[in-house]
Prior knowledge:
Blueprint: H1 3-6, E1 21-22, E2 27-35, E3 39-46, E4 51-58, H2 60-63, H3 68-85, E5 96-101, E6 107-112, E7 117-118, H4 119-126, H5 131-150, E8 163-166, E9 176-179, H6 184-188, H7 191-197, H8 206-211, H9 216-232, H10 239-244, H11 252-255, H12 261-270, H13 282-289, H14 293-317, H15 321-336, H16 346-350, H17 354-367, H18 374-383, H19 390-400, E10 403-404, E11 407-408, H20 430-439, H21 449-458
Antiparallel strand pairs: 1-2, 2-3, 3-4, 4-6, 5-6, 7-8, 8-9, 10-11
Helix pairs in contact: 5-9, 5-13, 9-12, 12-13, 14-15, 14-17, 18-21
Amino acid sequence: MSQSTLAINKSGRMFWQDGQLIYNGKYKIEKYLGGGGFAVTYQAMHTKLNRRVVIKTPNISVQRDPDYPKYLERFKKEAQMLAMCCTDSHPHIVQVFDFFVEEDGRYCLEMQYIAGESLWEYVRRQGALPETEAVKYIRQMGLALVDVHKKGVLHLDVTPPNIMLNFNSGIPNSGKAVLIDFGIAGDMSPPSTLSRSFGNKVFAPYELTRKGIRHSTVDVYCLAGSLYYAITGQRPTNSFDRKYEQEELVPPKQLVPSLSDAVNEAILQGMALEAKDRPQTMEEWLNLLSSSQANLTELILALHLKLDYQNLENLLKAKKWKEADEITTRIMLKVAKKEEQRSLDLESINNFPCTDLHTIDQLWVKYSNGHFGFSVQKRIWLECGGKVDYETECRLGDRVGWRKEKSWLLYDKYNFSLNAPLGHLPCPDCDYRFLIEIYGADMDKDRTASSLAYRLLNCNLSK
């Protein structure tokens, strides 16, 4: 008998069974995954898209609670907050796809299915993880939480069962960590079920489980506790016992003598019994895992660039050329660290990473079917003489449609469609050419598309 068949509430009413079709046949239930103080989850198949998903819905005990309408409103708001958190398709945050109401009035949240296993299961099977591997997964979770906290959302249950690892063909140390099961249960359960909503209270600080206090330091404690478990293979001492029974937290380095002092200290500070003694933000705690603030900044920059590239690809797929051009400029300014100046100078162009130029170019070439892209512009620039000077720049501008009747166009006058001339896009710093027209040709003319084309030549970038 399947788990879902056994998932029967006190009145004898069953939850969905394996193979059951719901929501007018849109989803086929595959199996029951589990439940907590507020909701139960199922693995299902989206029958039209042939996509495996997870469906979360309030459990029967909550539906019977007198305050159920209030919790239902919170459930709807939580769904909206989760959708906001994953708007940019964050690689380390579970995605929300839909929110719908079943025929029987049951509210459902459709979420991304993460293939793999949880950190909890992985450590139980593999044993304590090497420091580098454990820190990699926890750092990914920390970077995700930095963005989540900025949006005003707390997870409240960042524990090993809620950290999913998606491995690349089973290759060791190739897993990508994804944070699942946001604080729907912890933040919305009725008081009678709150203590049960945190299935692994050993990873939570006492102020949450005892007093219901919610703060970013709760996520810091939980994540530090998860790192403790990943590195030692053992659950840390329960914070309630530490507070009220005077039990001691065994330092992880005592269990793993080879553990670095920095990681040992990061865990101990993150798991400080009192919230005031912990790092007050996730960024502060992540700094303890990094050798310097600069390293953390680079990590966050790399993650944000990854998100930007995903957004660029999505926009290009949708043929939204203007939005794609604007995010291309944003990416290039980020890579060149010229966001404050809002423009690319000659030095930043000459030192622009070839890898990023190649990535941007290939996306534009692919989704425009060879009509747009830096490599297309480079070929035309070579046909125009291949020199880094203003005259060549003007000939290039005439060919690709940046100039009309010997005058540079304002950016708003560009043609953001496939009817535009070959090589018309992308066009970072386009308005600069118009400024040359207005204020005269004595401005820094080296900062032109010609210098960018020359950089493409040095990078050996070809269509």
